[in-house]
Specification:
The protein has 373 residues and is of the alpha+beta class. The chain folds into three domains: 85 residues, Rossmann fold (3-Layer(aba) Sandwich); 66 residues, 2-Layer Sandwich (Dna Ligase, domain 1), CATH 3.30.1490.20; 186 residues, ATP-grasp fold, B domain (D-amino Acid Aminotransferase, Chain A, domain 1), CATH 3.30.470. The chain is built from twelve helices and 17 strands. Strands 9, 10, 11, 12, 13, 14, 15, 16 and 17 form a nine-stranded antiparallel sheet that branches. The radius of gyration is 20 Å and the shape is globular. Bound molecules: adenosine-5'-triphosphate and magnesium ion (MG). The site of adenosine-5'-triphosphate has 16 residues, from strand 14.
Length: 373
Amino acid sequence: MQVGVLGGGQLGRMLALAGYPLGVRMRLYDTPAESPAQHVAEYRRGPFDRTAEIVEFLRGVDVVTYEFENIPVATVEALEQAGLTVMPPPRALAVSQDRLAEKTLFQSLGIPTPDFSVVRSAQELADRAARTAQILKTRSGGYDGKGQAEVTAAQDAESAWAMLSSMPPAPGCPGLICESRIDFERELSTIAVRGRDGRTAFYPLIENRHERGILRESIAPAETSDALQLQSQEYASRVLDRLNYVGVLTIEWFERGGELLANEIAPRVHNSGHWTIEGAAASQFESHLRAILGLPLGDCAAQGHSRMFNLIGVTPSLPALLAIPGAHVHLYGKSARAGRKLGHVTAWGANRSEAEARGQQVARVIRDAASGN
Ligand code: ATP
Ligand code: MG
């Protein structure tokens, strides 16, 4: 079996690693000269508009997938036209690239979402902010909290508008949207899988903690009710079925007053699912490969408890991390740069308190590295 992947970041690397024991060979394509995936699989470098070269490179694979959502939809469509099978379907990619299409999809499926609206002027934004605090976002191209500004009062509208409207618009969906700022209790995510035969499987809800828009920590399973778990699966099923989806899909939620509000989808494996490598029978990466290759889906139940910590900007001492029982270290082979995700550590425990205690040790080592100790 052979799989082609558009994108060669850490997600591509971990997909390739999950393919090894199953005998799946991977070919990855991305633009950077240095890429986390290039050390573990066949890697070709080039721009995404050279579709003829991409087709030539991927010719013969069983299926092509992607590992980040800013791949041009036109590229994916060109691969399909050249006879390659692409999963998840390009429509899912298109929806995830446009916050307006994404929120409209949630709305049409009866899935609660923050109030949102396209905004065309600083004045419109100021009017909305006068009623309730807003988050102004570019319709496309944002990630890790980039392309966003909080507008807590009408007088902030002008500067937020000036900052974001001067960013170069992405083709196809220019402009800005704003949404009500949700005073959430927690952020959660669902990692769902749908196979070629339409069967679905769900990992337990995950709790996510962000700092300055970047995911810092995930706790799995989240401490939550069965009712909320079922609700999340029900909502996720609606999205999967509507998009005729195949593969792993992630939905990010805000939890407020015991209810879920959908924030966004990612048509791919996700940072909040890295704990599944050690904390579930089938990892999200294996699940994605199983789904797109038409194989039976794996067991998505959590085994034990996990706390996943991102390594952002600095890599802590490896011996210090490895001295912690139950700590699993994943380094992506990237050079260090402020704000960059260089790796992650999953603290695993047989029960919640063990995972928490080990997680605290991991967090301490990461904090020491950040403060230069
Ligand atoms: P990602 O890295 O997940 O792709 P992103 O840049 O696409 O991020 P969002 O997920 O929309 O952006 O926002 C990043 C974070 O900003 C959220 O996880 C949340 O903490 C905060 N945030 C975004 N929208 C809202 C909102 N409407 N109300 C409150 N907080 C929000
Ligand atoms: Mg997000």
